What does this fold into?
Amino acid sequence: MKYRFLTYIKRDFNIWSILTLAIIGFISVPIFTVLLQLFEGPGETWTHIVENLLADYTLNSVILILGCSFLTLIFGVSSAWIVSRYNFVFRKQIEWLLIVPLAIPSYITAYTYAGFFDYGGTFQYVTKSIGFGALRFDIMTLSGLIFILSISTYPYVYLSSRAVFLYQSARLIEASKVLGASERKTFFKIVLPIARPAIVGGLILVIMEVLNDYGAAQYYGVNTFTTGIFRAWFSLEEPSTAIYLSAILLIVVFICIGLERLQRGSKNFAFSLKNGGDLHRLTISNKKRFILYLIVGFPIVFGFILPCLQLVYWSYLTFYSVASKDFFITALQSLGIAFLAALLTTLLALLSLYFPNWNRLSVLKKSSRVAVLGYAMPGAIIAIGVMIPLLSVDKWLISVFKIHLNLDIGFVINGTILLLLYAYSIRFLAVAFNPIEAGQLKLNKSLTEVSQLLGKGKLKSFLNVELPLLKFSITGAFILVFVDIMKELPLTLILKPYNLNTLAVKAYEYASDELIMEAALPSLCIIATGIIPVILLNRLILK
Amino acid sequence: MKNTYLVLLCAIVFSACKNDTSNQSQTENETGEIAKEVTVYTHRHYPSDQELFAKFEKETGIKVNVVNAKADELIQKMTQEGEQSPADVLITVDAGRLVRAKDKNLLQSIDSELLNKRVPSNLRDEDNQWFALTKRARVIAYALDRVTPVQLSTYENLAADTWKSKILVRSSGNIYNQSLMASIIAHNGEEVAKTWAEKVVLNMTRLPKGNDRDQIKAVVAGEGDLAIVNTYYIGKLLNSSDAAEVKAGEGIGIFFPNQEGRGTHINISGAGVAKYAPNKENAIKFIEFLASKESQEVFAKANYEYPVNAEVEPSELLQSWGTFKEDQLSLSELGRNNKKAVILFDEAGWK
It folds into this structure.
């Protein structure tokens, strides 16, 4: 048995196997650095946490996940269905407006809403002017947090479900209608089951974002697993306990991912190669149209327009104290870093998708799954996972140069942009990996096979056949990562090089100093730089 | 093709082996000219600081490299970087973190006459490993229309039944609450401190959330009568560009607790020289500069903080709140009791 195993390895081992191993190593080093810390056991406050806090953390996190899943499904699926199925004025604009809440970091939305409903805030001003008196509404609660996180993450569900509605279901819907099924029955019996894997895929992204949120939950006073990790790490001074908590979190996420794989099963979704034709959009009566506008308008107004208006007002109040030459440079730096890191991450995603495919060892075929791990870990934990191994590399380099060349080189990787880029690419690999993988699954395998049969190598077939076909998925992946990096905070805070700043860090600095109004201008810039790529993304999907 | 891999592999293995033999002799330092720079790891990110850094560069020709992050993360970073850390100076916004840095062996003792003169002894470390730069007091903000200062006395008094559902305070995750709790543990012992926290929790009008400004606004909005806040944020509120915030700041009175006894709890923002500072001389010069009369005046004016240098008066706004007796407790105690404080908060159910 053992002997046979070895012959298999000998037979199937090729250059791609080596490269697969290399890339797997590259991705998993930070993750396993963290996991290895698990064997050192939790700190002494572990029992204290279990006795006093764990129940609360778990309960809040579970409620948060359930609540957000429910709301994002409602917002995301309903609006996706409406823009794919019906024809109405401004439909094109609404299609991309539904994505833009993605450009606002959820902690900024949280701060904005708190300010909106605050004493002396806009809401009070409005109710007072209407004549209701200065009403107060407390948004800073668990249900408020659910609303905030849902309204800023539902576009993940919207995007993934719309893609299916547009391309996969046209023929089936027509068939269903021809056979006499009602619109409602068609939706629930045909459309939804087909779209389920994609919807759940989007939902997983939502859940991970929700689990990862720190800023909003902390400000709203809701104790979740992630705020607990920070508390154990920094307030209780026990990194080992923090890592223990994040390990539990990781397990939860793995279960989620596992469930998704399970429900997707071995279903083949390749039939959807744009052969469905375009869905014929229905035109509807005025009365019904009003309701549709309400449904798609709600997430746009509350997820984007309202926070933006509040931010514009605050920026107007604080413009002169915030805007400066330095601020402009910071904005340019943010763009540069995000662009570079997104490029790198997309490339890494492609490599980690294709290398295992090209290698013949079946053991390694599924190894690209590690790509999604990074997204499940809080940014701060990844930062540590990246720092520990690279510091030893750096120290080794220093000693080598010292001995052989008598040069004092200092840190080559640490404190430079390299470290930051590495950490970003690990953190957001899943964001790039999933859309590219989805695109690749939809590709007709025979195209590549034909190319290879005609004598082209794997790399060449990929470059000439698959890459052009995957163009849109890859650009989409790039854009998603770009927007995410523009918003990223904890990891950037820990790893950013000296004398370098990003807009998100700038906004955070103001906000953490309770200068929330001053944080508005950098936030608006993040949003503005996020919207343009998001609109591009929308165009890509429609093509 | 296969040979190329072999050569590559050999090269990697070879260089890896080389490393093992060379590890011992990396401690000695290069004796070059003194670099004209200083690297500052700081939790402070105020315009006043940037102004001072620029002034320091201009006066001394020493370039200031700034790394901004939360103190916790900076400490974590310094720990990981070890001897190779480029950090020269660590600046935090509370004493607890400085004590933590000292405990982790990240700072070094500094012998500076100027600093000993400029910073009072209770505001610096016993071993001169860190020095306070500014002070903030944790006071009680009360609703002017519902509370008279006569009703107020001490932090301990906040646990009294008269304040049932009247108190607003932020989460125990906040370092200023942790420091306050640490000082109560130091003065009254753990048992008393825990009972105090439990009773204050019962007196809260709502679950802790938001920041110090939010507590003040909630008082003015009538949600509660008292808020435990930092003087620094009241200053910020009163000078906000939003008229509603200024109004909120004007709606509260400021009470300095424990004036009959040990004095009002203060916390500091302070700096220390990193243990492995590559530019130690520059680092000392830098901290001396920040404690100088001129710099302290900038801190006092621009940032609503109390200066530590006795030669400098607080800003007019701060003076208008009156002078007060400070808790003379050694700030190192705050760091020492910090973890205990967090655990007691958890046990008392202070979120």
Notes: Chain A has two domains: 12-38+327-501, 42-319. Chain A touches chain B through 66 residues (CB under 8 Å).
